[in-house]
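Re: that chain you flagged

S.,

Sorry for the slow reply, it's been a week of failed gels. I finally had a moment to sit down with the sequence you sent. For the record, here it is as I used it:
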Amino acid sequence: MSIKTKIISARVPLDIADMIKKACETNNVSVSKYLTEIVTNTGNVDKFQLGGIVDINKNTVPKEIEAILSAFGGLGVGMVVYKVLKAYMPKNQFDEDTIENFAILGSIACGLGTFIGIEKFLKDE
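Prediction finished late last night. Pasting the C-alpha cells below so you have them in one place:
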C-alpha cells in the first residue's frame, strides 16, 4: 500500500536554503525527508545535525546579556509609565508637583517590578 503524498513548496531566503541544503548533506538525507522529520518530530530535533540552524531549546544567553535585557526592560517600562502618568493624570484634580511625584513613584515601581520579573523569567529557563 502506497502512502499518498503531496508536493509543497516555500520561498525562503537564500541563507535559509543554504542551511537546509548543508543540513541535508551533513545528514545524508533528501530535503523532503529532512523537512518531514523536522516538522513531525519537533520535540526531537537532536536526531539531525542542524547545519547552522539555531537550537532555541538550549539556554545560551550570557549572564551579561540577561542583565542588560532586564535593566533596559525595566527602564523602558518605567519611562512609559512616567510619560503616561504625566500626560493623562487629571490636571484639574492634582497640582503639577503631585502629578510629578506620582509619575516618579509609579515609574520606579513599575520599572523595578519589570526588572525583577524579567530577571526571574530568565533565571527560570
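What I noticed first: Residues 14-47 form one domain.

Talk soon,
D.
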